[in-house]
Amino acid sequence: MSVLGTAGAAPRRDARYEAVRARLNLHAVLPGLEDVVAGDAEMAALVAGADLTVHFRVAGGPAAAVRFAGSRCRAWPLGAGAGAAADTAVRGTETGARADRGAGNGADRDGESPDRGGRHRDGEHGAGGRGGGGTVTLWFTSPAHLNRMFDGSGTPIPLRGFGKLGFMQKEFTQLSDRLAHYLKPTPELLGDPDYLAMNTRLMLTTAAFAVPILLECDPVAAGFRRAFDSGSIALTVLPDGPSVGLLLGPQRIVAVKGEIDSPTALIRMRDVHIASAFLNGTLDTFAAVACGDVEISGQLPKVDALGLVLERVPIYLS
Amino acid sequence: MQTYSFAGSQALFRRAAEVIPCGIYGHFSPAPLVPPTSYPFFAVSGRGSHFTDVDGNDFIDYMCAYGPMVLGYNDPVVDEAARKQAEKGDTLMGASPLMVDLAERLVELIPFADWAFFAKNGGDMTTYATMIARAATGRPKIVAIEGGYHGVAAWMQGGGHHGVVPQDTENVIRIPWNDAAAFEHVLEEQPGRIAAFISTPYQHLTFADNELPAEGYWQRIRELCDRHGVVLILDDVRAGFRLDLRGSNEYFGFRPDLACYCKAIANGYPISAIVGRGELKNDAAGVFYTGSYWFQAVPMAAALACIDELQRRDAPAYMADYGRRLTDGMKRIADTHGHDLKVTGPPQMPYLRLTDDESTMLHQRLCAECTRRGAYLTSHHNWLVSCAHTDEDLERTLAIVEEAFTVLDEEGGT
After folding, report:
1. Which of B14, B34, B162 is closest, CB to CB, to A297?
2. Which residue in B67, B85, B212, B302 has its CB near the most CB atoms, within 10 A?
3. What is the domain extent for residue B100?
4. Is B7 on the interface with A (CB under 8 A)?
5. Cβ within 8 Å, pair A291-B34
6. Which of B21, B35, B358 sits opposite A295 (nearest CB)?
7. Strands (E), B48-181
8. Chains A and B: how many Cβ contacts under 8 Å?
9. What is the pLDDT of residues A159-218, one digit of tens each?
């Protein structure tokens, strides 16, 4: 899957690269399934009857879960851990307790603000409840193994939920393929308003949820960490959304879908076309700001730093 | 009070954006002006402390073109000197005798300086200074201050910025401002590897309160440089000739080994300068460093006239007085409206910020409302005053500020 265009020469695909990429795939890209199910009627119908949770577990981390229930889909990161012990911890999560995500290790899907008091108001398309249904656990021997699956060339090792493998091989695969389709824009596809809207939504949320990961794991992005020590950043596509927010703190950064209250920095894109160009890296951002196509205000150093961090995304995901 | 509109600027900008990266690039980019719709982008003329934009709006300029304007736009004395030289020639096949005059003038003016060298931009001189330091010491590393800005060459920019690769910055070590202990720690950690320490005379970052040096800070830095054989480079590009005509180091009580100037040296004519101690002259001579227009005679004539005028008018004192009256007046107005306006930095170049709002959006609105009424203020950068700002300008500015605060109060929120 590719997001946010390309970023120059291909990096060396060493273990560190694969680890960062795996986290981005699980915690920034995978949550896009929520939006595809919510916004694509065909996909919503495809998974309408499903009632199960899929766990993605990589040896040594990371891990994530996707739940299908009541015609909805919800994704969230899981705590670190491997094998059966971690699976038990996951069941605890399924009954409502949130897995402890530790410091700065990714995105909070519920929209709660542990540090800043920002309030998540809308935009969440969660599945109804976390209990019930079966569980499929997909095991990956390494981050590279997981990344190969996202690239379409790898196969996970199912650890449990063999009775649900039919769903995985059929419906889930179709859903994943549709997500990949939305994340590989072409000029022709972007000419379709529905595709453009979905691509923009997915790019925006992928970008937001990638930020905490990159600030923690990418050595270049980590150089900008100090800019994110306090406050919050809101990104909005005018006139009616989507929106995402970043709740900042010295220990942890949380990405949320939807609007946030009283951001200390604001980025508002005039419309979905401007947002698409911005997120696909085809916009002269300085010119766009001066023209009013992109409105920025508040703590501008955060906006500047955010732009530089986001430019690291294509290094891993293009 | 009339509020301006900027349709001409916006239209011209859209043309510009088609054929120029960013439309308007660099420090003149409208991007940090919030909102851009409240600011002019293109200026067509200037006189004294005022400039006129492409829409015919008149502004009292509190940015002074980001520093070069110090005597007033189209100052008659400086312009006359430039015009006379232009009639004789500018870029000719030979250095101008004025280059010698100007070097002697700077050596006479700046107590620690034994020689001078000229280029066009401040960044030309800061890069040259680091090369001189490396040549003199044989060492590779440069210590700079976190967030410190010394121009746009790759080594000066932060890692992760466009066009900057790790190899560009790997020999630059950044330490906190006002932390001599951190510098000492670097010197201990990297014995014999540090060529230079480069800094502005005080901390004047964008988007942040300015910070003056702590008591004894510069003296300690000087002592450490002496003990470890490190070249002390003063980047006086922004503050030079505003705090003290002898160099900002005199204002703060220390002696650098090299000092770089630009902005106010020639009232807007393009020239920069570096001066240095005699011990470094041969090292400077050994570094091959040049530029096509670095021998232009007109800017040198302008610089000589500008320096004379700055001395005649006791420019730093004039600008300090105006700056104090400006910021005192603004603080009083802010207080009456229930706002806290914090002032930092020297009065000639103050940085102001409304502290009521952590997001800075309120301050951005204040500056925008003032600019729309004819007092050009930015919210992200320290302001600069000149010898051309008058009592009339001050009175009008404070009237504008009063109305701007009233508008903010009426609109409410942040």
Report:
1. B34
2. B302
3. 76-312
4. no
5. no
6. B35
7. 50-53, 58-61, 115-119, 141-145, 172-175
8. 80
9. 878 777 888 888 999 999 999 999 999 999 999 999 999 999 999 999 999 999 999 999
For residue A268, the distance in angstroms to the closest alpha carbon of chain B comes to 12
pLDDT recorded at residue A6: 38
CATH number of A187-317: 3.30.1050.10
Per DSSP (E only), the strands in B154-230 are: 172-175, 194-199
Q: Report yes or no: B38 at the A interface, CB cutoff 8 Å.
A: no
Closest chain B residue to the Cα of A284, Cα to Cα: B22
Domain spans in chain A, listed from the N-terminal domain onward: 15-182, 187-317
- Both B258 and B350 in one domain: the answer is no
> Rounded distance, CA B407 to CA A62, Å?
52
Whether residue B323 is found in the same domain as residue B304: no
Among B340, B374, B302, smallest CA distance to B62 is for B374
**What residue ranges of chain A have pLDDT lower than 70?**
1-11, 80-133
The answer to whether the peptide bond before residue A242 is cis (omega within 30 degrees of 0) is yes
Q: Same structural domain for residues B111 and B218?
A: yes
- Same-domain pairing of B174 and B210: yes
Strand A265-269 relative to strand A294-298: parallel, antiparallel, unpaired?
Answer: antiparallel
> The CATH number of the domain where B146 resides is what?
3.40.640.10
Chain A residues near any Cβ of chain B (below 8 Å)? 220-221, 223-224, 231, 262-266, 284-287, 289-292, 295-301, 308, 311-312
**Both structure tokens of B120:** 């066009």
Average of per-residue pLDDT across B83-112: 98
